[in-house]
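Methods, example record. To illustrate the input and output format used throughout this study, we show the complete record for Diadenylate cyclase. The sequence lines were provided to the predictor; the line carrying structure tokens was produced by it.
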Amino acid sequence: MVDFVNAVDAFIDDYFNVNIPDVSITDVIEVFIIAYFMYHLLVWVKNSRVWMLIRGVLIIMLFFLVAAVFQMNTILWLGEKLVSVAVTVLIVVFQPELRRALEQIGRRKITSLFTWNILKTGAKKFDDSTIVGLVTACYEMGAVKTGALIVVEKDMQLTEFERTGIGIDAVVSRQLLINIFEKNTPLHDGAVIVRGDRVVSATCYLPLSDNMALSKDLGTRHRAAVGISEVSDSLTIVVSEETGTVSYAREGRIVRDVKEDELIAELKRLQNPEEAVEAFTKTEKEGK
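The corresponding predicted structure is encoded as:
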């Protein structure tokens, strides 16, 4: 390795008359270590609510940049004072996520720390069979007025909510979902979290939305669906126990009483935004 680096250095020096600093084996190892930890840090940020915070911080920074360009001195003075307490505020707000990340590092084996594994994330695409299973189960439960709450992950992992329930780790199917939400069964109360093609947890507790603009007709199940959509990029399907209607919540808003093809289209957009929804609907009709 050293001979190769020296040869490259000599080639650049001879042909381009440019001197580059000496690179040792220690420098190469140091770069790989930094890259490894930066990679896992970015994965953790992407799969947690920290990413949403970073986007908010970038918007605020852009706001202060505009203030600097136009010499808005009062705003710049306020921004300077806020920076001094911003780090402390971030630590307090995201204390649970930071503690959980350190706990996960402590639980891992030493050998696994030096293995470059691609972590599984909520970005995994699910199959069309999963969409069919979800939609079929929801409308069958709606026909008999069985309440259901199903959270389908997108990019952000819902690990903190997954831990509030009971782990399942089973392939998504119509029969499984109907059995979970059957009345008077141990798993029917709470939400189911779907990651990729698998149900990972049931009886999960979700945060309730405190949005005062929501209709007073909405019960706890619907408010929980909106609540989880406010803190994540997931899609939550709700089956009403009172009316049997199917709704979905996403990005802090709820769409009530949707038809089967509408729910299929929304799940298809979640599965792969680049694909045309019409192609999937056409394939399903041809299959029937």
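Annotations derived from this record:
DSSP finds eleven helices and seven strands in the chain.
Residues 88 and 94 are 10 Å apart (CA to CA).
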